[in-house]
């Protein structure tokens, strides 16, 4: 349920970001959004968690933040150019392929898993839907 709510929220965020970037530009939108995300995350972390810091995990978190800025900027640019549904069809398709690869090799502690015929068919169907979204 939380994953579905997050998905719906991402669609709204992409729409808002695409609208804002038409006036502010992608870099400013990413900066403002990142600042608000940073402040919210710090407040939540200080109030509800007691993280154990290690140099490797701090680097992972920092790189994750850089990737997040790229993701937000890329999606907002694509959504502004082609629409939210088309942009997300490409994002989701590429996420699935990358996710399957990461899970398969167990990179960064991801759940090492096998590929089943059903998994491959499921991803292929989602990708086919994405192609239909982009083309039509």
Tags for this model:
5 helices; mainly alpha; 136 residues
Descriptive account of the structure:
By secondary structure, this protein is mostly helical. It is 85% helix and 0% strand. The radius of gyration is 17 Å and the shape is flat.
SSE layout and pairing:
Elements: H1 2-24, H2 26-48, H3 55-82, H4 84-105, H5 117-135
Helix pairs in contact: 1-2, 1-3, 2-3, 3-4, 4-5
Question: What is the subunit organization of this protein?
Answer: single chain
**Uncertain spans, ≥5 residues at pLDDT below 50?**
none
Strand/helix succession: HHHHH
The biggest beta sheet is recorded as: none
How many domains, in number, for the residues?
Answer: 2
Span from first to last CA?
30 Å
Rg over alpha carbons: 17 Å
Strand content: under 5%
């Amino acid at each position: 349920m939380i994953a579905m709510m997050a998905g719906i929220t991402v669609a709204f965020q992409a729409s808002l970001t695409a609208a804002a970037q038409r006036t502010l530009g992608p870099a400013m939108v990413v900066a403002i959004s990142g600042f608000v995300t940073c402040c919210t995350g710090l407040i939540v972390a200080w109030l509800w968690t007691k993280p154990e810091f290690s140099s490797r995990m701090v680097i992972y978190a920092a790189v994750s933040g850089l990737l997040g800025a790229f993701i937000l900027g890329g999606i907002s640019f694509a959504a502004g150019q082609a629409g939210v549904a088309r942009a997300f069809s490409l994002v989701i398709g590429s996420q699935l392929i990358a996710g399957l690869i990461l899970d398969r090799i167990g990179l960064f502690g991801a759940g090492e898993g096998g590929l089943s015929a059903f998994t491959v068919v499921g991803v292929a169907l989602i990708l086919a839907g994405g192609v239909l979204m982009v083309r039509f």
